Amino acid sequence: MILELKEIHKNFGGVSAIINTSFAIKESEIFGLIGPNGAGKTTLFNIITGNYKPSSGEVFFLEKKIDHLKPHKIVHLGIARTFQNIRLFSSMSVLENVLIGFDKSIKYSVFEAFLHLGRFSKAEKNAKKAAYEILEQLNIAHLANEKATSLSYGQQRKVEIARALATNPKLLLLDEPAAGMNSTESDDLARLIFDIRDNKKISVLLIEHDMKFVNKLCDRVMVLDYGKTIFEGKPNDAVQNPEVISAYLGDFNASS
Ligand SMILES: Nc1ncnc2c1ncn2[C@@H]1O[C@H](COP(=O)(O)OP(=O)(O)OP(=O)(O)O)[C@@H](O)[C@H]1O
């Protein structure tokens, strides 16, 4: 297992956002987290990335217990994420936004950086080359010098994914990656996620409301409702499960 959550509870004051949730993701799996607004999906992401501590329960990444670690340590171990609301640096170019992801792998002294010497310029050159390779894989290398926030919504989401990939993750967490995309963009994104999984052997955990996207992409899904797990299994079975339909999918089934 690449990731394992055991009996997670999370309370915010009087609100139980997550109630006794356990699940595990296998290596090279694409796993979907779905459920209505406020179900606790983003809270689970924040627990996995170390932004929230669970009230109780444990999180293991590649068999190592990580629920007590700070977010930057967890990035170093190999978990990267994107956000529901895109978080790019507006004054920076696409390339510069992606280069931020490489910080953890660049080792040089402040003195070397100041003089643009030795390891600094070598590390900088290597990081730029690797950033271009990622941008090429995502078909946005031609936009490297554009201001990140001048791009279309779909392209900005790709820049966020590029920045996450720059940290060289083993597990990628995507929070509503297809939100706001048209069907051509979301088909393109699905191909990209398959490509990341197949060629880079990165496991993917994603939150998504677009059930067609989830059906196409995910090996397994977990459905949350008010912090409780109401289903875990194949997406095709989820859409036929009565509890899932009444909690979440009524509209989806009626419209498809
Ligand atoms: N920092 C916080 N402080 C207090 N309550 C919080 C906090 N973060 C989340 N919650 C509460 O926890 C519950 C779960 O919220 P969460 O954002 O995880 O849901 P979600 O499934 O990601 O919803 P959405 O699909 O709208 O993003 C909600 O009741 C929310 O108000």
In short:
This protein is an alpha/beta fold and 256 residues long. The protein has ten helices and ten strands. It has two domains: 165 residues, P-loop containing nucleotide triphosphate hydrolases (Rossmann fold), CATH 3.40.50.300; 80 residues, no CATH class.
The CATH first-level class of the largest domain comes to Alpha Beta
**Overall pLDDT confidence:** 89
CATH architecture of the largest domain: 3-Layer(aba) Sandwich
Number of domains: 2
CATH fold assignment of the largest domain: Rossmann fold
Percent range for helical residues? 40-55%
Number of helices: 10
Beta content? 15-25%
Cα distance, first to last residue?
34 Å
Name the CATH homologous superfamily of the largest domain.
Answer: P-loop containing nucleotide triphosphate hydrolases
Q: N-to-C SSE series? A: EEEHEEHEHHHHEHEHEEHH
| Structural class based on helices, strands and sheet pairing | alpha/beta
Poorly predicted spans: none
Radius of gyration: 19 Å
Q: How many individual β-strands?
A: 10
Protein name: High-affinity branched-chain amino acid ABC transporter ATP-binding protein LivG
Keywords: ATP-binding, Nucleotide-binding, Transport
GO molecular function: ATP binding; ATP hydrolysis activity; L-isoleucine transmembrane transporter activity; L-phenylalanine transmembrane transporter activity; L-valine transmembrane transporter activity
How does this structure look, described?
With 256 residues, the chain is of the alpha/beta class. The chain has 2 domains: 1-78 and 169-255, Rossmann fold, CATH 3.40.50.300; 88-167, no CATH class. 41% of the residues lie in helices and 23% in strands. The chain has a 6-stranded mixed β-sheet, sandwiched between helices. A 4-stranded antiparallel β-sheet has the order 2-1-4-5, covered by helices on one side. Helix 3 runs parallel beside helix 6 (153-165). The chain is globular, with a radius of gyration of 19 Å. The structure holds adenosine-5'-triphosphate. Residues 12, 15, 17, 35, 37-43, 84 line the site of adenosine-5'-triphosphate (ATP). One of its GO terms (molecular function) is ATP hydrolysis activity. One of its GO terms (biological process) is L-isoleucine import across plasma membrane.
